[in-house]
Amino acid sequence: MSGASYAYPVPEKKMDKYILGNLASEELERVRLAIRKYRLPSLIKQNNPNGYSDISTDWLSTELIIRRLMYAKEAFHMYKTKDQLDLKIHEKIIQTNFDNPDKILKIVAKAKSNEEKHMILFNLPEVLRA
Amino acid sequence: MKISRRDFLKGTATSLFLAGFNLPALATSSRKKNLVVIMLRGGMDGLCAVPVIGDKNFEKRRKNILIEDTIKLNSDFALHPRLIGFNKCWKENTGSIVHATSIPYKQRSHFEGQNLMESGGRVPYQEKTGWVGRAMKLANLQGDGLALSLPMPLLLRGIPKNNNYFPTWGRLPRKDTLDLLKSIYADSSEDELLQMMDFIKKRKDEQMMGGTGGGDRQKNKNLARQAAKYLRKSDGPRVAVFEVNGFDTHAAQGGVDGTHTECLVEMDEIINNLRDNLQEAYKDTIILTVTEFGRTIKQNGGNGTEHGYGTAIFMAGGLLKKSQVHTDWPGLKRKEMYEGRDLNATIDARSVYASAMSTVFDLDFKRIQKDVFWGEDLQNLSDKLFKA
What we know:
By secondary structure, chain A is mainly α.
């Protein structure tokens, strides 16, 4: 989500210092490892040499939704504590990233906690079929 | 005279039967029959799995990787000794092999070959659906497909609302969150996503997540146990698709304990666990394999084999006519081989698949030939290989 207000788990300054080709530190690898843990496509080796399809009707499946839900939950707890506690943070993210923020805001407002909002936001039809 | 609703329905059913409507046909089709496809990625060596007996040309070309202590199936063919599960099927008359067969792909690219083994076509990347998905659409089997892999394989595409099972670590979110997401999908008229949420909610209820043993649960032998539980349910899926990787053994293919053998054993464990866990449903099931191509007859300098052409199909299940090696054997002399190096394919593998689907889906073979395989020249092998 470009322009989102969530601070990435690793500070930008640290990311900028990384030299391509060097072994990444555990801190830099944190997100990649989380994605790998749930075997989310794109960062794991695809069995079929043709790779992964970009078309949602090709890849959308029960297991993928499960992984997106679980990754969203884990990712939420990787953000800075102040972001996790900010009750307005999803409003800011939605206003920044969606063409139809009012509709999305109304949906996400049904969630009871920031963690739940995060999981819902990452699995909205608009996001899945982007 | 006053006629009750029950009497009216009974009377109508009798009238329809006497008028010649096909109630017996409906009774036949209401029997739940299952199809299981195991995709063997990398090019399965049909002659490692089912070697030909007493062919000097073969033995001479495979000195270092010849399989020893094989199990004799008939006067011409033997079985790899580690295929214990399949051997049980063979002994109880529910295991068959089609030998010297292939999909009609004669190049040697995994990229193209694997695309075609799933799409069933002749031109790589032309088709966006799989032969199983298209046949399921023809049989109106929406929501009856189960992939034991991630993501959804091309083979099953062509019909919506398929499910997949490939458990990961951890626990699913709370029920409230799942309910909320489900209501959002319902409000957005997202039928497919809505069905997925139903699958997910059911999985939570059945505590079918990977838990701490997620890695083990992703192993094919364990996936087979779970798939059997689903398949044997009367309202469960009718089609399951597995994937076994690693058959591309260019080096150190090995003999009876080699890397190609390990892949064959993985396939065998799927067959064995399905056989054991399907219980009564095994008799109404066809399990079959598909691969992109076979491997060269001659071993290479690294004790491996290269990409070839002809291979073998393994089949198991109670819907098989009998245990047999069905083949039109082309021979292994140089002039009999494809391009002087590969086992030739004398049977289009798609004839086997179309015949199997005709049996399981209760569809006319010609309809499958026309609507699933574009009217290609396929042979109806239903009577030879499967029970009516």
